[in-house]
Amino acid sequence: MKSKGIVCNEPSVVAVAIDGRKRRRVVAVGKAAKEMLGRTPGSIVAVRPVKDGVIADFEITGAMLRHFISSAHNRRSWLRPRIIICVPYGITDVEKRAVRESAAAAGAREVYLIEEPMAAAIGAGLSITEPSGNMIVDIGGGTTEVAIISLSAIVYSKSVRMAGDKMDESIMNYLKRKYSLMIGARSAETIKMTIGSAYALETEKKMEVKGRDMVAGVPKTIEVSSEEIREALQEPLRVIIEAIKVALEKTPPELSADIVDKGIVLAGGGALIKNIDILMREETNLPVMIADDPLTAVVRGSGIVLDNEELMKSVLTT
Question: Are 262 and 143 within one domain?
């Protein structure tokens, strides 16, 4: 919100109760709903209405946005705010319309869309209005956006559906294969954030992991090391690096020269994985920087755009 900064910071998870007539009722939204992931009785389901950066459940997305709007505005139900929503680069017109309509149904007066890499670049403090190349890599939850930006426009961008959620999945599959241990998505995310790394650490770490033994069917505790989690994260990181290399190949030569000087800026929650900048540096031979507070770069960038009419005209997507 203008002059206040971030007033609501919640995961996009909604807990829904389903009655005998298959009618759905929202029970909890955000952090409270995320606590319920994998822990609900049969009548309550914890769902992620936004999947891979696009809307998977229109009705529940509307309910979630209504909740966030009212909590950000101290529950004043009559309020109809202007809303800017970040979307992955290259989503279809149908997907854009779904985003606009769900926000309008949630009570928005005006709905603007901005592409995530553009918002991330603005939030990271890059000089996007100048005629020089800036490269941003935004590793979010559902998608990773790689973009080259110059003169307030995206010169080239590649969006891959390989990001934080897929990394969690890789950790779950690795523990299944190696230890026959089944864990939930929340546990996988905790492992990734605690001991996950993209490149060798100075001192490797270990962590206790609890889950269900797939052979005996009973609860089991094992100890995993940061080397093992690094091995589990190899595949998703390889896909992201491949997308960066493709973007560099498609960049016009003059902009390539700028990127050699300025390097690559990492944003999004994925940029918090330990030593990811070192891995990217090794793979691309370019300087790699992590944005200040990468987790909120996209939302801070969209807030800056909403405050600046001139910038808004040049960067919004139609």
Answer: yes
How many residues in total does the chain contain? 318
Q: Would you say 207 and 223 are in contact if contact means Cβ atoms under 8 Å apart?
A: yes
Instruction: Give the domain extent around 195.
Output: 164-232
Cα-based angle 13, 192, 247 (whole degrees, multiple of 5) = 85
Each residue's pLDDT tens digit, 64-78: 988 888 888 775 656
Give me the CATH number covering residue 182: 3.90.640.10
- Please indicate, yes or no, whether residues 140 and 251 belong to a single structural domain of this protein: yes
Cα–Cα distance measured from residue 273 to residue 250, given in angstroms and rounded to the nearest whole number: 27
How far is C-alpha 73 from the geometric centre of its chain's CA atoms? 24
Average pLDDT over residues 242-269: 93
Report yes or no: 268 and 120 within 8 Å, Cβ to Cβ: yes
Task: Give Cα separations from 203 to 195, 198, 225, 226, 233 (angstroms).
Answer: 11, 14, 11, 9, 18
CB 12 within 8 A of CB 46: no
Q: Indicate yes or no: pTM above 0.85.
A: yes
Residue 61 resides in a domain: no
Tens digit of pLDDT for each residue in 165-204? 999 999 999 999 999 999 998 899 999 999 999 999 999 9
Q: Does residue 13 form part of some domain?
A: no
Q: What is the pLDDT of residues 135-154, one digit of tens each?
A: 999 999 889 999 999 999 99
Q: Tell me what pLDDT residue 78 has.
A: 63
